[in-house]
Amino acid sequence: MAAAKKVLIAEDSSVIQNLTKKILQFQNFEISAVKNGEQVLKTLEKENIDIILMDINMPVMDGMECARRVRALPDASKANIPIVAITGNAKNYSMEDFKKAGITDYLQKPLDFDKLVSVVKELTAQS
To answer: How high does pLDDT run on average in the chain?
Structure first.
């Protein structure tokens, strides 16, 4: 059996973080969770991750800045990790804004958990 795909959830809301974690664990994903973009970068220094689910509005470092920094990492495999933005403010950004920051796809809050699972499965099937 293939090793579980590793999902990093970057979300400052404990409620959303815990719900997302439970749903993806039920789908046999291995989950790490952090509260801001700075912690995403620290996690990537230590771990290999298959996909990042990232809130756009987080304290310390927001999702857009964090995505740009992930894309600038010297390790090509880490710099190319799929990043899915999770935001309640999608109207503030166009898909072009997300693409410029290096974001692969986005999900609107409140989260549609069926869509979350299908996007995560689709983007991790390639890795």
So the answer is: 93
Q: What is the value of pTM for the model shown?
A: 0.94
What is residue 102's DSSP assignment? T
Q: Which of 46, 58, 45 is nearest to 9 (CA)?
A: 58
- Top pLDDT among 127 and 34 is at 34
**Which H or E run includes 105?**
strand 105-108
- Domain holding 72: CATH number? 3.40.50.2300
Can you give the residue range of the structural domain that contains 83? 6-125
Q: How many CB atoms lie within 10 A of CB 32?
A: 17
| Strand arrangement of the beta sheet that strand 83-87 belongs to | 30-34, 6-10, 51-55, 83-87, 105-108
